[in-house]
Amino acid sequence: MDAPAASPISPLPILIAPDPRLRVRTRAVGPGDAERVRALLPRMFAAMYAAPGIGLAAPQVGETLRVAVIDLLPDNKPAPIALINPQIVALSEEMVTREEGCLSLPGHYADVTRPARVKLRYLDAEGARQEIEAEGLLATCLQHEVDHLDGVLFVDHLSALKRNMILRRLAKEMRQKTER
Ligand code: GNR
Ligand code: NI
């Protein structure tokens, strides 16, 4: 039997905290970035699906543009969302606490309190203006990804004690992984 054909889209490697590239504030995508974004999006989706995760932001793959991808796979069916230059235009006063994880903080989870609903404007992969109003996990994920574009990680929403506990444990785990 033949081996399955290799995917022509190679997933980008995901950076792990405390990589300084996760702390960079990204810049807006402009007309001159079309080619770069066209090349980037499929490789971000591939990295997110391979992980697997429900979202991925450009800084997590070392890119400095305001680009993120999301797919919550509702009913286990692909529902990819490409977010270019996303802007939060409204947040609910009502807050909700949910356990979050992050592909750049693998294996670490914590309860984060955020607005329960969000309204977001963005450009899609075709450059068309879009608006999305979300609640539930999608609302959390949208805010988590926009945070990444400003160099913010979910642990930044925790107390310094909890944040440093997670970052120190992660650093130790990564050290042990690479030790011979
Ligand atoms: O895969 C992910 N799961 C998740 C769970 C709860 C809240 C946010 C997320 S996003 C995360 C993928 C990721 O790191 N995106 O930046
Ligand atoms: Ni994340």
Total helical elements: 3
pLDDT averaged over residues: 96
Task: Give the CATH topology.
Answer: Peptide Deformylase
Q: What is the topology, as strand order, of the major beta sheet? A: 1-2-3-6-7
The CATH homologous superfamily is named: Peptide deformylase
The oligomeric state of the chains shown is single chain
Task: Please state the second-level CATH architecture.
Answer: Alpha-Beta Complex
The domain count comes to 1
Number of strands: 7
Strand content: 15-25%
CATH class: Alpha Beta
User: Which molecules are bound in this entry?
Assistant: ligand GNR, nickel (II) ion
Largest sheet at a glance? 5 strands, antiparallel
Level of helix content? 25-40%
Question: Distance between the terminal alpha carbons, to the nearest Å?
Answer: 38 Å
Instruction: Report the structural category.
Output: alpha+beta
Uncertain runs: none
Describe this structure in words.
- With 180 residues, the protein is of the alpha+beta class.
- The protein has a single domain, classed as Alpha-Beta Complex (Peptide Deformylase), CATH 3.90.45.
- Helix content is 28%, strand content 24%.
- It is built from 3 helices and 7 strands; from the N terminus they run H-E-E-E-E-E-E-E-H-H.
- It has helices at 34-50, 136-149, 160-178; strands spanning 55-57, 67-70, 81-91, 95-100, 110-115, 117-123, 129-135.
- Strands 1-2-3-6-7 form a 5-stranded antiparallel beta sheet. A two-stranded antiparallel ribbon has the order 4-5.
- Strand 6 and strand 7 (129-135) form a beta hairpin.
- The longest helix is centred in the last third of the chain and has 19 residues, at 160-178.
- It is globular and about 45 Å long.
- The model has no long low-confidence stretch (mean pLDDT 96).
- Bound molecules: ligand GNR and nickel (II) ion (NI).
- Nickel (II) ion binds at residues 102-104, 144, 148.
